[in-house]
Amino acid sequence: MNGEVLKNYINGKWIESVTDKTRDVINPATGEIIAKSPISTKEETLQAIEAAKTSFWRWRTTPAQSRIRYLYDFREALEENFDELSEVLTIEHGKTIDESRGEYRRTIENIETATTIPTLQMGYNIEDVAAGIDEMVIKQPLGIFFCVAPFNFPAMVPSWFWPYAIATGNTYILKPSDQCPLSMVKQFEIFDEIGIPKGVINLVHGGAEAVNTLIESPDTVGLSFVGSTKVGKLLYKKCGEFGKRVQVQGGAKNFITVMPDANLERTIPNLITSFYGNAGQRCLAGGVLLAVGDIYETLRESLLEAAKKITIGEGLDESIQMGPLASEAGMKSVLSYIQTGVEEGAEIILDGRNVRKNEKFLNGFFIGPTIFDKVTPSMTIAQDEIFGPVIPIIHVKNLDEAINIIHENPYGNASSIFTSSGKIAREYQYRVNVGNIGINIGVAAPISTFPFSGMKDSFKGDLHGQGKNAVDFFTEEKVVITRWF
Ligand code: NAD
Fold first, then answer.
1. Residues within 6 Å of ligand 1 by CB
2. Residues spanned by the domain of 194
3. pTM here?
C-alpha cells in the first residue's frame, strides 16, 4: 500500500494496465493515498473475456468435486491470512476492525456454501413419463459471468456470486469497486497462490468502459451487479438490450418500526448497530425510525443517550465503535443531507457534524452519530438513501400508518419491527413489501444458504445472490427425454 497503480489479474498473470486514467484509493481515516485503481480500457477487458472463454471448456469438464477443492484451499488461505485481510479492508474502507472481521466471516460462509455444489447442482428426474420414457433435468454451466461490485462491502459482496459461478463450472470476471479495490486484489493474490487454473477467474479494475465492454461482448452470459439503484437500472436496461442474464441489487431506504410493546432494553443496541454500523453505509442499514404510539419519547431519549456514547476514530483501534465515511464524496453527500434535514425543518437533536470541530478528525472523512427528531415522511432525509450515520425519527400513530409510509417509498430492500407481539410481527412480515424482514433483528442479513433478497427499486431481476438462487442464476436447466429401443 504505497500508492502504486494496481494490476489486473488476467489469464493467471498480474498485468499492468495500459490506461493513463486512475482513481486514487484513499484511507478514509487519514486522507492518505494508498493505491491507484486503473480505469482499464476496452482492449484489456476483451483480453479478460478471451482468457475466460479459452479456459471455459476445460474448467466446465473438470468434475465438480475437483473444482471445489480450489474453494477449500481458498477458504483455508482466508483463515490463515484473516488478520491481514481484515486490516487491509479497514484501511481501504474505514470500517472498524471488528466490522472487517465480520465481513470476512460472511465471505468465508459463502465459500463454504459453494463447496456443496455437488449437491446444490443436482438435477432431478422421473421415470415413465410415457411407457418406457424417462425424463430428467441437468443443471449446466453457461460460460462467462461477471460481477460489478460496490465499495461498501468490497470483500464480501463478490462472494455472493463468484464461488457459486465457478463451482458450477462457469468462468468469471470481477470488476471490483474502483473506490475500494484492495481487498479483491488481496483475494486474487490468494487465487494465484493456490494455483487456480488460469483464466477461470480474472480481475479487471475500472469503471463504465470495462463494464460496458463486458455487457456488450457476445461471449459473456450474465451480470451480477451490486451498487446504487441509479447505475443498477442503467445496467439492467443495457443487459436486456444485449440479451444478458442479470441480477441487480440496488440501493435502499430501510424503515425500522418500534411498537409500544417492544423490549426497549434489547431494542436500543440493535438500533444503534442498524443505523450506525459500518458508519451507516450498509444496504441493510436502518434508514428511518418509525416510533409507534407512546413509546416515542422514551425511545428517542434512550437512543440519544446510547448514540452519544459511541466512540469514533480510526478503525484499526480496537476500542473504536464507528469509523469514518468511506470517501470524501460520501462524507460531503451525508453532510449535505444533514443540512437539507435542518433546512426542511427537522429538529437535529444530535449533530454528528460537531466531530469535525475536533482537529484529530479533520484529515479523515468523519461524521459522528446524528439524530433528527420531528421528521415527516415527505422530507428528503425520510425519502432518500443517506448512506451515513443519521437517524431520522418519525412519530406515527399505529402500525397501519407505519406500513403506509414504508409502501410509499420506492425502495424495498429491508425492514425490521421490534415488538413483543407474535401477531403484530406476523402481520408485518405478511404485509411489508420488502425483500429482507427482521423481527427484533436490526440488520436482516440473510446467511449464505438463503437468498440475499430485495424488492422494488432495491432489486431488478428474478434470482438473487447466495445459496440456491445463485446456483440457478449460474446454470441452465436442460431437459433430457430418453427412450431406449
Ligand atoms: P455505485 O453504483 O456508485 O457503484 C457500483 C459499481 O458500479 C462500481 O463498481 C462502479 O465502478 C460501477 N459503476 C459506476 N458507474 C457506472 C456506470 N455508469 N456504468 C457501469 N458501471 C458503473 O455504488 P457504490 O456507491 O459503490 O455502492 C453503494 C450502493 O450500493 C448503495 O446504494 C447501497 O445501498 C448499494 N448496495 C446494495 C446492496 C444490496 O444487496 N442491495 C448491497 C451493498 C450495497
1. 148-153, 157, 175, 177-178, 207-208, 211, 226-228, 231, 235, 249-252, 283, 385, 387, 413, 452, 454, 458
2. 8-250+458-483
3. 0.97
